[in-house]
Amino acid sequence: MAKDMNRREVLGAAATVAAASAIGTSTAVAAGRGQAPAVMSSYKPLVVGAHNGNRLTNDDGETGVAIAYRMITAGDDVLDATIACNNLPEISEEDTSVGYGGLPDANGDVTLDACCMHGPLKRAGGVAYIQGVRMPSLVAKDVMMKTNHHLLAGQGATDFARENGHRVEGDLNSERSFKRYLEWKKRVEEEGDNRTFAELDLDFIEKKGFDVAYQMAEEGRIDIEHIHGTINTNAINHKGEICGNTTTSGRSFKVPGRVGDSPILGAGLYVDNDVGAAGSTGLGEMNLYHLCSFLIVEKMRDGMHPKDAGMYALERVRDFCMGNERYMNEKGEIRFNLQFYVLDKQSRYAGVAMRGGEGRFFAVCDDNGPRHELMDSIYMNE
Ligand code: ASP
Hints:
By secondary structure, the chain is an alpha+beta fold. The chain is built from ten helices and 15 strands. It has one domain: (Glycosyl)asparaginase (Glutamine Phosphoribosylpyrophosphate, subunit 1, domain 1, 4-Layer Sandwich). The longest helix has 18 residues, at 2-19. Bound molecules: aspartic acid.
């Protein structure tokens, strides 16, 4: 019941917006009787983000990117639109990579990170290691709007959320996420010569846990995209206003206390209203070493196309990891995934991945409607 109410809270807001008429074209025009249309803007509205932005639907059958596109073409704030997109997987137990039902840490606790950046306002907000709040992206926005800080973490973030009207629950595991956790824990214990989980040291859990999670993904027990899983969504409206939002339950079965790239400006997300936006999903540690979202935006500032800028960042990460067995597969390729979702001020866009291939998509919505497009990548999965 509580779950349904939460869903209605979000979808009700989205439905209200549906009542407003959408502009729906890339160029907004206004014309009085007998007057030539006045061109208001030449920016093409566009939403680009992770694949899970075009997977779940609201009661009207709209996916997240479709909701965001409708909102930006109806004149809503671009950041609110990207957050509305990300709220869908945040509140759904079907998506085990974010919010409610996100895969927990090695102790079985769901801890969440989120970040948002508002291009025109030149402001950003984030939360890290927050617990009990299904939609941390909304808390990130409150941090941005109501404090002079960018990042609140841990209990302070949870207290801030409660004080600002966000519902705080005891446990965000769904039946599905906790079942996956118990399976993972059992396998790690087996790998540890049948010592109990409590007897295993965290270093062992972290190293074996990585392998076991990949093994479970190969067997189809975890969505490969959700070993690391996150949603990032970025958008530009007809006025050229650019915003982005990233939200995650972080790396699954992580060492308790771990925070990844998602809430860190320049890593999980970066927006410059004069240039464009980039956001990330995937192995956060490797993104953090290079602050790839910032790097990508800077490369676009120098004139690179979003795809080239994204591939440049991936090549930097690849070269950095080469030779480190922990990150390589038997073919000598990088085995982890890292993805970037990128758009520029000209509404050019890209989705790029370390490992691509069949089924590796990113989400897009523009005047051609919501869709998945294949990621460009350095390596192809068979
Ligand atoms: N990038 C996020 C993190 O490392 C989650 C992910 O997409 O794996 O926490």
